Amino acid sequence: MNDTVEVALKGTAKITCRYTSEEGRGSMDIQWFFVSTGERHKICEQVGMMTTINRTSPYANRISVNDTETPAEVALSIRDVQLSDEVDFICRVKSISEDHVEGHTTLKVFGKPDHPTIEGVTTGISVNADSLSKIGTCEVRNGYPKPKITWYKNTTPLRNTDNVNVETSTTSESSGLFSVKSDLTMKVDRKDKDATFYCEVNYYLPGTNGIMMMMETTKINITVICEFILTSQLVQVVVSPGCKLETENKQLLTLSNRSISYKVVLENVTRLDSGEYECTLTNIDIYEEFSNRTAVFVNYLDEAVLNPSDTVLMDKGDTITATCNALSSLQTNTAWFKNNKKMSKDHSLILEAATFDTSGTYLCVVTVPEVEGMETRGSLHVHVKGKPEIQEKDINEIETSDETIILSCHAKGYPTPKITWTTSEGKVINSGSQMETDSGAKSQVTVQLTSDVTVFCNASNEFDSDSVSFNIKVKITVHTTPDSSTTPDSTTTPVSTTTITTTSSNPKATGKTESKGVVIAVIIICILLLAILGSVLYFLYKKGKICNRSGKQDITKEKSSKDNIVVEMKSDNTEEAILLGVNGDKTPPGDQVEI
Question: Biased-composition ranges for Low complexity (predicted)?
Fold first, then answer.
């Protein structure tokens, strides 16, 4: 299928769909859809030679589907095309033994505008006016896409400067067509009395390969008022700068006061000031005339003209060539830049095998090497269409003990993807921020952490969607103490343990490593406590402080048939104590030694 099909408003559009299959035409199932607000809607279906039209479709009464003269090709014809028909159309083909395939075509609708009109001011315009004076108004109605109006003075296009202002306004009619109005105001001088002003309207039509068509208005003239003052009975006239005074015989009189030198100053010159200037002096006493001539040439550089201009939409893999030119009286240099990086040293910019990274703003700069500071610029905005692609693909584990964490997500695609954040429970996180980039959009979100959580970054546009998950592992520090039911003589030592919940995670992050210092400190404290306990027992043993229940006695005099060492075992719930020998013999309570 063709990428685009162009058609005039209220005309008939023919969209063809060619397919290849080893099966016959009778086994083919061909479906037609149109895409609106990102969703596809069925128009009709053709199974074999039978066609079924969706009667709820807005195209139900305006379409026909027929085979063309080309084998394996069908055509969808749409009559009485409207502006609302400027959408994407999809042809879906499926056979009995083969999977379905699809093709896309964008329908472009063009409406030729009415003939433009121009209306000039009818009053005279003074060259001494303090502000810019209105010259006239141009208007063109009912065009699509929006027509462009350019003002001309004689054969020179007029652009906005300090002395010229072109103000354009656009109205969208109820029919969807555009009407454009343009007002011209400028500072006039004496030469403008002979000038002609008119407007040129540029617009597009189908089948012109992107070349704009042109219409012109009728030409108008203006009346220029030059003031002068008679200073004496002699015919001496003081003329305002740049004005002409014509007598009955059309002789140009340029008079000045008596002085040694005479000069004329040209300010804010344009190319129209180029030409030959003549200075004539007349001695009125002897009526002798002296004259001299000089040539003046004003260098100029017009605005940069880009083709294509403004904004370009590309599909992945496409190639486009953009040109940038500016008319100048001197030699020029042209270069293309993107993000301050030079992309081309020529007036042509070639973008091949487009990817999302191709998207961005390309700046064309035209300079005149011979004149410092003389340059003009133009910009081209390139968008590469496609479904979103989230760039966070290389996944690592996120481990943190912070109360919050900031996550980032960068999605490429056009139209610009919309990025949303959700949790595994389906809760939407509204604290995220989104900003557009050259190739798509970037978003950041701050997540409050109370436990392990999975956060999803979702990016979507009219083509499709993409998502990536962030599985976060939270470290929680818990303080515990031993059971309070220990013996009064025992020593209670608080113990601090760190609990780490383990989850799988897959964003780009660097996990934190837990310190082993706590474990080492606990081991050292235990060793010191055992050493102190052993020292106390040894000290009591030496002092003879160990005795049985009936009174003090020297435990060293007791003889056992097996060993002399006994251990006292006490129960938490009773006062009963049984001494066991090292070899496991029970010692009666009367013979037990209490420590």
Answer: 481-505
Distance in angstroms (rounded) separating the CA atoms of residues 61 and 77: 11
pLDDT of residue 28: 84
Element (H, E) at 534: helix 517-543
Q: Where are the domains of the chain?
A: 4-110, 117-216, 226-296, 305-387, 391-480, 546-594
Which residue, 46, 42, 33, is CA-closest to 73? 46
What is the Cα–Cα distance from 437 to 383, expressed in whole angstroms?
11
DSSP 302: P
**What's the rounded Cα separation, in Å, for the pair 13 and 428?**
45
Helical segments of 437-506, H only: none
Q: Is the pLDDT of residue 108 over 90?
A: yes
Q: What is the mean pLDDT of the chain?
A: 78
84 — phi, psi (to 5°)? -70, -10
Confirm if 443 and 419 have CB atoms less than 8 A apart.
Answer: yes
Would you call 22 exposed, middle or buried from its count of C-beta atoms within 10 A (0-12, 13-18, 19+)? exposed
Q: What value, to the nearest 5°, has the Cα angle with vertex 522 and ends 521 and 527?
A: 100
Element (H, E) at 285: none
Domain boundaries 4-110, corresponding CATH code: 2.60.40.10
What fold, for 305-387? Immunoglobulin-like (2.60.40)
Residue 567 bridge partners (DSSP): 580
Helix (H, G, I), strand (E, B) or coil at 407: strand
Domains 4-110 and 391-480 share a fold: yes
> Biggest alpha carbon distance in the chain?
165
| Chain segment 4-31, per-residue pLDDT in tens | 999 999 999 999 998 887 776 677 889 9
CA distances from 354 to 103, 382, 418, 530, 551 (A): 20, 10, 22, 74, 101
What span, in angstroms and rounded, lies between the C-alpha atoms of 26 and 161? 67
336 touches 324 (CB < 8 A): yes
In angstroms, rounded to a whole number, what is the distance separating the alpha carbons of residues 90 and 472?
A: 43
CA distance 214 to 147: 10
CATH class of segment(s) 391-480? mainly beta
pLDDT of 448 strictly over 60: yes
Q: Three-state DSSP class for 591?
A: helix
For the structural domain made of 117-216, what CATH number should be given? Answer: 2.60.40.10
